[in-house]
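Record format v2
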Amino acid sequence: MKLAGINVYNVDVPSVFQYKLASATVTHLQSTVVELVADNGLVGFGETCPAGPVYQPQHMLGARAALQEIGPSLIGLDPRNIGQLNRAMNAALNGSRYAKAAIDIAAWDIAGKAYNRRVCDLLGGATGDTIPTYYSVTTSSPDEMAREARERQQEGYARVQLKIGGRDVEQDIETLHKVKEATKPGIRIAADANRSLTSRDTMFLSQRCRDISLVIEQPCNTMEEIAAIRHQLCHPVYMDELAEDVNSVMRAVSGGLVDGFGLKLTRLGGISALQIARDICDARSLPHTCDDTWGGDIIAAACVHVGATVVPSRFEGSWIAAPYIARHVDKQNPVRIEAGRIKVPTGPGLGVTPDKLQLGSPIMSF
Ligand code: 0XW
Ligand code: MG
């Protein structure tokens, strides 16, 4: 089988409400969908959709420029040979893992279809038919965030992530206490500062919330800041934005810098890279998520397939953007949440089929 063509599509992703985190507000995004077309007619889909240009260094236009650079060198390769495809992408362009991720995801999709297996089966096998997700509560008043956390727990979510930071730390401390009062014991809480806290405020927050079971996600901007305060904190620390690639995951794990990760599919480089990060975490019994910063059904399906292969006791869930966005590219079979869990797609490959009408005409083709 040979890769005969690549199409790249723009997909508008409108939000149903403003998703506010410390460093950015997400409203309307444009996702980039990649279609790999094989010479036997099989197609595979991938996607990359950074949460705006500020959340992390990756951004939509950067992804498209990188795909322009990479695309032509892949024609003629066997799309089932994902290792070879990744080596060819690295030979064509340094970095830009988040753009290469869209090709990598599409290659796993096409390989699954070629072998008539789901992606999760190719990754070692699923632990069950559904996986947990978590709800990310956007920044607002302490009362509002506590109300939302309570409602989501009642809906069936076992974990909530509360966006903190970007405001007076006293408000975040009040929020965490109110969330504890408003929810029943057993809910798992992540307080995610998205890099915005000073080491001083992280210490204040952790010490003043010492009797609340929670993990602090990505409190500060650099590994050095986290390392400097880590042993003065009362809570486990998870890394998200600084887990930029497999090497940074390895560095954080081997340096004993963190207790877990928010692993992001496209930032790491796609399903191939996320699978390696999953195994590194497994070797050190570290909990982690398998999700992305945003995106539609293709990214959601890819996260769910990898998430389905993680040891359940250490899996923190796959966050997907479905509750926050007003559009599905697979209208027949969208990836959606029911009572805090997501059904693992059953079809071969990723198990989602984008509706051609939703994709429109390609913005680039090779
Ligand atoms: C909750 N997320 C997975 C989605 C938003 O883009 C932020 C992100 C995170 O954990 O930082
Ligand atoms: Mg995070």
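The chain has a mean pLDDT of 96.
The pocket of magnesium ion (ligand 2) is lined by residues 192, 194, 217-218, 240, 262 (CB under 6 Å).
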